[in-house]
Structure formats: structure tokens, C-alpha cells
């Protein structure tokens, strides 16, 4: 999929590239215009394209892998959670740090190598989100769910040195 980042959802700690393909963590002093969809207090951003049906995928590359999360989030969370974290219900994400999926409660994962390229693969009809290590196409984890609404690509950073790039 051709996924780009939605500048109207970018939190104050997000620095977006001009082509909306890369997210970096800033110091929180970004001069951003008001937007009703904007996250208010973290370094999260959504993709600009949402999905209501079908199978989709996108790949990300994580650089200076400190702490990050990638996955999908429900559209309705934009109306409720202006500080969307990967631990919110309605977010299905793989998080670096302890390599865990952030659903409530989180499940720890055992990953034997550093993840640099990740494929996020939501499937509305099958009700699942699958994460792959793109370097060897091994499945990292598959989360079962039931999507009842539109989902958006989700990205979040927690450290200044970290960067996520859409491939």
C-alpha cells in the first residue's frame, strides 16, 4: 500500500519529513496549527489512509531502534483519545523495548534479533493484524480481533534518536 503520514494527527513531539514518509521524535516545540484530530501530548501519528475492508500491508524501517510502536488504531479513538498510546484498547501494535504487542493486557514476545524492517498486515475480513520481520518474512505475531470500523496505520516514538520510515 502507498501509506503516508497524516500531519493533522501528528502530536507535538512529532517531526514529519516533507514527503510524509518519515517520523522523528522532536522536543515538543513544533509549531503546529490546531487540528481536531491532532494528538495532544505524545509522538504519535496516524497514516492518512484508513481501511474499512480488505487486506492491506505496509512496511516500515526503524532506525536507531530505541523505543517505538507500529500497528493500527480504530478511527473512533481519534474522537476519544487525543493522547493515543499503544496500550489503549482499539490499538493493535508491536512495541520495541520489550518486544510486546500492546493490547490490554500486553503479551510479551520473544524475538531473537533486532527488528529493523517490519510489515504490518491488517486483514478486515479475517479479523487479524499480522506483523512480519521483512528481512526474512518470518511472522512475529498475529493478533486476532474483530474490526467494526475503519482502522488507520499507527506510529509512535518514545526517544529522540528514533526514526520510523515508511518503505
Automatic annotation (TrEMBL):
InterPro entries, per the entry: B30.2/SPRY, B30.2/SPRY_sf, Butyrophylin_SPRY, ConA-like_dom_sf, PRY, SPRY_dom, TRIM/RBCC
Establish whether keyword Calcium is in the entry: no
GO terms for MF: ligase activity
The answer on whether this UniProt entry bears the keyword Nuclease reads: no
Top-level lineage group = Eukaryota
Which SUPFAM superfamilies does its entry note? Concanavalin A-like lectins/glucanases (SSF49899)
This chain belongs to the protein called TRIM7 ligase
List the taxonomic lineage.
Answer: Eukaryota, Metazoa, Chordata, Craniata, Vertebrata
Amino acid at each position: 500500500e502507498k501509506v503516508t503520514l497524516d500531519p493533522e494527527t501528528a502530536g507535538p513531539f512529532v517531526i514529519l519529513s516533507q514527503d510524509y514518509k518519515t517520523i522523528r521524535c522532536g522536543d515538543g516545540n513544533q509549531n503546529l496549527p490546531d487540528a481536531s484530530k491532532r494528538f495532544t501530548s505524545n509522538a504519535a501519528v496516524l497514516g492518512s489512509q484508513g481501511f474499512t475492508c480488505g487486506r492491506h500491508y505496509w512496511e516500515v524501517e526503524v532506525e536507531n531502534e530505541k523505543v517505538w510502536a507500529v500497528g493500527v488504531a480504530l478511527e473512533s479513538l481519534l474522537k476519544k483519545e487525543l493522547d493515543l498510546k499503544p496500550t489503549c484498547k482499539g490499538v493493535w501494535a508491536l512495541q520495541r523495548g520489550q518486544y510486546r504487542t500492546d493490547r490490554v493486557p500486553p503479551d510479551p514476545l520473544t524475538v531473537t534479533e533486532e527488528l529493523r524492517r517490519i510489515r504490518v498486515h491488517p486483514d478486515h475480513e479475517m479479523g487479524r493484524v499480522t506483523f512480519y520481520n521483512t528481512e526474512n518474512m518470518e511472522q512475529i505475531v498475529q493478533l486476532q480481533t474483530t474490526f467494526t470500523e475503519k482502522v488507520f496505520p499507527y506510529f509512535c516514538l518514545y526517544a529522540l534518536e528514533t526514526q520510523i520510515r515508511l518503505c
